[in-house]
Amino acid sequence: MSEVNVEDHPSLIQTPQQLMVVVLLAFLVPILTIVMVTQLITGGLRIDRNSVEMSESAVSERLKPVGRVALADEPAGTSAAAAPTPPSAGAPAAAAAPPGKADGGKVYQTVCAMCHGAGLMGSPKFGDATAWKPRAAQGLTTLHEHAIKGIRTMPAKGGNPALSDAEVSAAVDYMVGHSK
């Protein structure tokens, strides 16, 4: 049999008081190190609450929304900017809708352009003939029904239940018309 030679190594911690000091330092040293490093990096940033940058108007300007939703009911000139044009380059502008008839271009701009302008969630992009061709092959009646009732990730009436079926159908006709 072989003999096992075990050597006793003396421990640096001999008493409970020494153990308490080591445990306390194990918590305090990393915390103090982190605080000192952050102070070194930030330079001890001091914020003057009376400065121009911290005024209420400057703060509200930095926090204001980037965009604004323009509703169809708003009178002209009350929105922050004019209604954007369709994303399709060279697409003819929508003619003004006759009285009593829904304006597909206006409905597209206010409701549909959010997703169909950028092609979000798999929606066919405005003016993209390749994307619209298989959908148009289903027929306008089917497209109208899908737009009114919703299909896959598209909510019913584009997420605006206040739209009439005629307005939704006019918007579909407008988009299909600009994709040929």
Q: What's the name of the CATH homologous superfamily of one domain?
A: Cytochrome c-like domain
**CATH C-level name of one domain:** Mainly Alpha
How many helices? The count is 6
Average pLDDT over all residues:
79
User: How far from one another are the termini?
Assistant: 93 Å
Model description:
The chain has 180 residues and is mainly alpha-helical. Among the domains are: 15-44; 104-177, Orthogonal Bundle (Cytochrome Bc1 Complex, Chain D, domain 2), CATH 1.10.760. The chain is built from six helices and no strands. The protein has helices spanning 16-42, 56-63, 104-116, 129-136, 140-149, 165-177. Helix 3 packs across helix 6 and helix 5 (140-149) crosses helix 6.
Features:
single chain; 180 residues; mainly alpha; Cytochrome Bc1 Complex, Chain D, domain 2; 44% helix; elongated
Strands, helices and their partners?
Blueprint: H1 16-42, H2 56-63, H3 104-116, H4 129-136, H5 140-149, H6 165-177
Helix pairs in contact: 3-6, 5-6
Q: Quick gist of this model?
A:
The chain has 180 residues and is mainly α. It is 44% helix and 0% strand.
